[in-house]
Amino acid sequence: MANNPVKPQPCRILDVKKESAHEWTFRVETDARPEHGQFMQLSIPKVGEAPISVSAQGDGWLEFTIRSVGRVTNVIFEKTAGDTLFLRGPYGRGWPVEQFRGKHLVVITGGTGLAPVRSLLRQCAQQPGLVRDVHLICGFKNEEGIVFESELMEWKEKFRTIYALDTDKKDGWRTGFVTEFVKEIPFAAFGGDYAAVVVGPPPMMKFTGLELVKCGADPAKLWMSFERKMSCAVGKCGHCRIDEVYVCLDGPVFPYTVARGLVD
Ligand SMILES: Cc1cc2nc3c(=O)[nH]c(=O)nc-3n(C[C@H](O)[C@H](O)[C@H](O)COP(=O)(O)OP(=O)(O)OC[C@H]3O[C@@H](n4cnc5c(N)ncnc54)[C@H](O)[C@@H]3O)c2cc1C
Ligand code: FES
Q: Which atom of ligand 2 lies nearest, measured to the CA of 240?
């Protein structure tokens, strides 16, 4: 696949896991080796294509956690283990893992915003010492919206975690928006040696960015990942363009200093 990244390749679905009613994880057989935070174009012939983040990877497989929202994703949800999906990629700039190495890593996600950062978190959990420690805040609208629940429980043992539901109550979980918990991150104790990543719906990213800066985080140490309508994914069609920025090539991961100008 790496030899011709623009040609969709047929790949076998190995497994489908229902995370929630409208968010399912598809494990697909492929030898593609994306960087954390990159995306692939998933397609169904005669239906269309959708850019989807890689949510986990292993030897000979990738996982994609998909929300069924329309034409392409609804047809993907009709597929099951043994069926074929077409993939091209990987595309885009992922998380700057080298810049995170040895530092305190703060990760704040809203809903399925956890998907584009999940493969990085899996590596942090499997490889202690990659980063100094992980401070993870994950928010979900309600209990039905929780994804990757067994991993969230595993990460409780390895990371400093705050898991929250917007308004509902649940044992071991906090109630409130993720922005309310940002002040609990001990930025002053980090000695400047940290990076923070934020992924979620645009309003969540906007207000979390503002709150992080209010709580003392340096804007130059913050990163965000964007979902934007795309077509070619290789910088040719202009569908993803915001001013001079091509989200497919320059992103989807951006430094906050660029991202804050892109959030509507
Ligand atoms: C870099 C990147 C990573 C993404 N990662 C994921 C992921 O991990 N999981 C996931 O479920 N989705 C992800 N998306 C969003 C996903 O690409 C869209 O939901 C999908 O393309 C919709 O296609 P559709 O044909 O099913 O829906 P359509 O019938 O085309 O549209 C249904 C609705 O979705 C909106 N929409 C369409 N395309 C996008 C888009 N690219 N971004 C946001 N909204 C869109 C439309 O405005 C419409 O309201 C990502 C998008 C990008 C750009
Ligand atoms: S999707 Fe075509 S230029 Fe970015």
A: 4
pTM strictly above 0.90? yes
Domain C-terminal end among 30, 57, 90: 90
The CATH number given to whatever domain includes residue 228 is: 3.40.50.80
Domain limit, last residue, from 45, 66, 90: 90
What tokens were used for 205?
């990213």
Mutational pocket test of ligand 2: of 231, 242, 254, the residue with most ligand atoms within 8 Å of the beta carbon: 231
CB 106 within 8 A of CB 133: no
Question: Do 187 and 57 sit in the same domain of this protein?
Answer: no
Q: What is d(CA 43, CA 10) in angstroms, rounded to the nearest whole number?
A: 9
Residues 186 and 102: their CA atoms lie apart, in Å, by 17
Atom 4 of ligand 1 has which residue's CA nearest to it?
A: 52
pLDDT in tens, 168-208: 999 999 999 999 999 999 999 999 999 999 999 999 999 99
Which ligand is nearest the CA of 226, by number? 1
pLDDT tens track for 199-233: 999 999 999 999 999 999 999 999 999 888 888 89
